[in-house]
Structures are given as structure tokens and as C-alpha cells.
Amino acid sequence: MTTSTPQQRIEQLRQTLDHHNYRYYVLDDPIIPDADYDKLMRELQSLEVTHPDLITMDSPTQRVGAKPLDGFDAVVHQLAMLSLDNAFDDQELNDFDNRVRERLNAVDTLEYACEPKLDGIAISLIYENGRLVLGATRGDGVNGEDITSNVRTIPSVPLRLQGTDFPEVLEVRGEIYMPKAGFESLNARAREAGEKTFANPRNAAAGSLRQLDPSITKTRPLQLCAYSMGRVEGAELPDRHTDVLRQLNAWGFRINPHMDEVQGIEACMAYYRKLSGLRDSLPYDIDGIVFKVNSRAIQERLGFVARAPRWAIAYKFPAQEQLTELLDVEFQVGRTGAITPVARLKPVEVAGVTVSNATLHNRDEIERLGVKVGDRVMVRRAGDVIPQIVSVVLEQRPETVEEIVFPTRCPVCESPIETIPGEAVARCTGGLVCGAQVKEAIKHFASRKAMDIDGLGDKLVEQLVDAELIDSVEGLYRLSAEQVAKLERMGPKSAENLITALEKSKQTTQERFIYALGIREVGEATARNLVQHFRTLEAIQSADEESLMAVDDVGPVVAHFVAEWFAQSHNQNVVQALREVGVQWQDESELTVESAMPLAGRTFVISGSLEAFSRDEAKDKLQKLGAKVSGSVSKKTDHLVAGPGAGSKLTKAQSLEVDVMDEVALLALLSEYGE
């Protein structure tokens, strides 16, 4: 039996851990459990403590080991890190293509490399003989800062390269960014600690990279995505830019999975439109698309102008942040009595949409921002997220600003406003005597994912309550067509349609009914779990908090809200009244597990567009059959439903050998079980 020396075992452990880091942080495809990885790391740490003379800077144990710095040293880039020219519409992108082809003597079409432009911080990484020796910021393109100690803490930055065919000297250029989920988590922790939050993921990434203490940087969820090489010595590179990126991936670097190569500028525009549609669903922020002539030989012929290459351009998306003025703050009352301050803004276009209102969340957020009426504020809108004020430009604060005064009484019913210890949200104590809460409760009850009452929109609900035709949800089912027809913009035909829709909605499912009741913290998934666990409404109504906590995803807070809601006599009366007017469903206890849940235990992911129904509708149908519908593909996924534009989820599903079905197969499956 052969035995290895400590040095041999240390090197073996380092190579093994480097490989698993590559699988986890670059390929998103781990092959061992975290516990096994931790065991290997502890063994390496123990050996290095015993043999400190064998510790090297490229060891996985040395990602954080440097002392806090007094400041950052200057770095001069031997090969300048140039910026890119920008295009803001199709014409400017066409003009770029025309300039390139004219300079190349009227080439018909060119192959372009297409890459999402990550909204982060440009970085230069220098490797010598495969080992990281320097990490530097872009700075002004010629002079940057040495942030090697901080860069080393980022798990997706390899401390040494994979393989053996790498150059003697390799400069990798990429973007350090913070994923959206990590950004939200970081800000949530800051709010809990009463600390300042970051305005956006880019600012969070920049602030994290410039920490003088690397141990702080290590706690920040940063990622690296490589997008090019700079200085290279001792090796020949592939002829095409996209092949260069694939080579970087083989050496251990994460590259963007949406990278592509296309022929001609029209295909570039199609790529831009496709990624624009995917932008909001990506797990990170992008602010445009970078198009590069893919041939490196042609890149060299084209050269540079001023501080930008002639062979590349960034086609920018509409800005997601803009400056505007806070004109006033109003306070709205939600269906649970939550008082939400809403900022009235001087209208401004953000991400292609005119924004005149933004949420301020709660009193704590107003105090944290230090915002006042009349301030110049930065407004952010990303995708379908409600616009929000993320910062105040104190340098532009006028002398006429006014403090925001939080009300002590409900602006709708004059009931006292209270704040429960431990909660940031203030609430009206009026309950169902508060007109706003009644209106919001009815709107929620009638919504598509609840009772799905066709034609009962928000404005009609407000008319019905204001006209004193209803004052609770069960009152909906006591309406007559004659009463409804007298309302503004409601004729006899519209009134009859509404009464028909109300009658139809009486036939529902138990989980929809429970969700429609509007119990705090009880969403669709929780309602479904309650039904699957207790089977009958009576069992849910009589369950105590301890019994409720036995339900999947129900913790002490949700259990308290459910038990408290059903303990209130007026809520019991509402449920009884709804049953008396004919709201009904097939009791889960009357169904066999097999017939009720034919897809139980199977996990689906839906990606891309569907034609027969929306993705939400497909999700609802699958969940009715007992399936779990997840938002991301993993080894636990059983089926990916892939429509046009499925993108990276399809790629990952294929790599994990997950079953992929198209919409036709999904329809056949649903039809098989009566959906």
C-alpha cells in the first residue's frame, strides 16, 4: 500500500477542491454534497496548520487571509482597458455596422459576437504560470487600483487555472457583479441592522470591492463573468472571440450562458430584442448588449479610435434609474390595514415607462433615506417591480423641503394607527369598519387567483362599496342585476354578465377559497398546503397553532395569523355566510389521493412562452394535479416545459438530462388527468 507525503496530499486536496469550486461556481453543476466539500476543506486546513511552510497563496484556504489595508495601491494597465461606444436605437447600430463594413471595403455581412452587458464593475486579473497574482479595477482605463486581496475572496475567481495549456502570462478581463437575489438579501440584512442600504446591485458590487478589509468583501455575494482577454504571453489564442471565451471557460472562468454568434446586423437586432424580453427574468442586471466583430484578425485590421475599439459597440437598454422631484407623499391603506406611504413624483421616464408614483415602504424606510418633500430623488424601476426611491441627492436639496409627517390616524376611517413591536409596518385598527380595508378585501376576493369573478374590477368594487350596495365579500352574492345596472357605466347587459360571473364563481376549489379570504401571509402555495394537509375547511378552522405548524412551509408567524383569523367571530360569520349563499367545492376528503393528486411528487419548471394559456395558468393546472412547480432547474427537477425563448433553463435542463416537454406534450398530460 502506498502512502502519500503531506505535501502530496495537500496538493491533491487543492486540486480536488479547485475542481469542485469550478463545478459549483462556474458550471453550476456540483457533483458532491456540501458536507463532503467541507470535510475536504477541513482536512486541507488541518494539514496546512501542521505544515505552515507548505501554505501557498493559491490554496483554497487562502481566499481571505490578508490584513485590512490602509488604502489601495495604484496599478498601471500595460494594455489599456478601453471603454465602448454606445448605440441607443436601431439606426445607430446600423450606422456602426455600415462604418465597419465600409472600412473593410464593403463586406456584405459580418459575424458578430453577442453578449449581455452586465451592470457591474470592470476588472483585470493577471495570472502568471496559471496562478492569480493581481486583480485591478479599470479606473480611467490606464490607471486602476490593486484590489487583489478582495478579488481573491470571490469564489468564481479561480486562484489557479484549470488544465495545463494556459499561457505563461494571461490577463483576463471581466465584470464583477452582484446577483439580484444577493443584493436583496444584503439590503434586507442592512435594514435589520439599521445600516445604510445600497441603491442598486452595481453600487453594492462597487462598494463591496472597495472595502479595505477583505473579510467584509468575502461576506458579499459577488460573482465574476469573463468577457475578454488582455495581455497574453506564451500562447496562441483562437481566431474567433467567442472561441476565446470558451477557452476561458475551460480554464475555469464563468462566461455568460447567453453568449451567441450571429451573421449580420439584422440578427444583432433580433438578439437585442430577445434579450430585452428576457431581461427582467435574468438573475442579474444587464444594461444593454455588447456586439463585437467576432474575427480577431478583422478586429486587428479595424483597430481603435480615441479610447474605444472600432469593432465593438454597446447597444444600451432604456435606463432603469432616473432623477426626479418628490412633490408630495400620500398614505394608502391596504386590505390588511397596512399604511403605505406613496411618493408623488414629477413624471419621469424610467425603463421606457412614465413613472409618477413610487413606494416608500414604511416609516423606517423614510427615516433611513432621510427623504423630504421637495427633494431630488433617484427612482429605480426594474421589470415589473413597483418603482421605488432608492436615494436622495442631498447636494441638490432646496431650502424649501418639508418633513414627511406620518399619520397617527387612518386617512380613510380615522381609526388609530398602531405599530406592533418587531414590525416595521404601521396598521389601521379599524378592520372591516375601515372602507379601504373592505374595498381591498373584496378586490382580493374577486381576483383571478382567488374566486376569479370575471368583470369585477377595482373600479366597480369601489363603486359598489361607495354606493353602499355591499360592505363585505358575501354581499357580492346578494346583488341583483337591477342594483348593478344603476351604477355609472353599467347597463343591463353588463349587470347581467356580472351576476352570471358571480354565480359561476360559487363553484370553486377549497384552496382558492382559503386564499380568497385574505388571511395575512397565506398565499396560493400556503392555501394549497393547508388543504392537502387538513383535507377539510372544518379541520383548518379548528386547528391550533401547533397543529398548523405541522404543515409544509407554515412557521409560527403564519400559524398564528391563520389561527387568529379563524378565531374571530366576525370572520367565522363571513365564512358561514359565504357557504349559505352557495359557495362550494368538492371536499378533498371525498377524493382518493390517487385521483386528487396524480402528479404528486413530481417537480416541473415552466420556461418560455405558451400559446394555449399563460405560464401562471399552466402552473395552476399542474398544481391542481399535485405537482410542485419551481422557478429554477436543478437535479430535483423532473420535467421542464419549454416554450419558445426557454433560454438558459433549457440549456441547464439538457445538461442535467431533465425530461423536456413542449406545449403539445404538456397539453396531452393535462388532458390525460382532466385538466
Concise structural overview:
The protein has six domains: 57 residues, Helix Hairpins; 183 residues, D-amino Acid Aminotransferase, Chain A, domain 1 (2-Layer Sandwich); 98 residues, Nucleic acid-binding proteins (OB fold (Dihydrolipoamide Acetyltransferase, E2P), Beta Barrel); 75 residues, DNA polymerase, domain 1 (Orthogonal Bundle), CATH 1.10.150; 81 residues, DNA polymerase, domain 1, CATH 1.10.150.20; 76 residues, BRCT domain (Rossmann fold, 3-Layer(aba) Sandwich), CATH 3.40.50.
The Cα radius of gyration reads 30 Å
The CATH architecture of the largest domain? 2-Layer Sandwich
The fraction of residues assigned to DSSP E strands is 15-25%
Number of alpha- plus pi-helical segments? 25
How would you classify the helix and strand content by structural class? Answer: alpha+beta
Helix fraction, binned, reads: 25-40%
Number of strands: 24
Number of domains: 6
Question: What do you see in this structure?
Answer:
The structure is a single chain. The chain has a 5-stranded mixed β-sheet. It has a 5-stranded antiparallel β-sheet with strand order 16-15-14-17-18, with no helix packed on it. Helix 12 packs across helix 13. The chain contains 25 helices and 24 strands. With 675 residues, it is of the alpha+beta class. The chain folds into 6 domains: 57 residues, Helix hairpin bin (Helix Hairpins), CATH 1.10.287.610; 183 residues, D-amino Acid Aminotransferase, Chain A, domain 1; 98 residues, Nucleic acid-binding proteins (OB fold (Dihydrolipoamide Acetyltransferase, E2P), Beta Barrel); 75 residues, 5' to 3' exonuclease, C-terminal subdomain (DNA polymerase, domain 1, Orthogonal Bundle), CATH 1.10.150.20; 81 residues, DNA polymerase, domain 1, CATH 1.10.150.20; 76 residues, Rossmann fold (3-Layer(aba) Sandwich). This is DNA ligase. Its cofactor is Mg(2+); Mn(2+). It is an enzyme of class 6 (ligase).
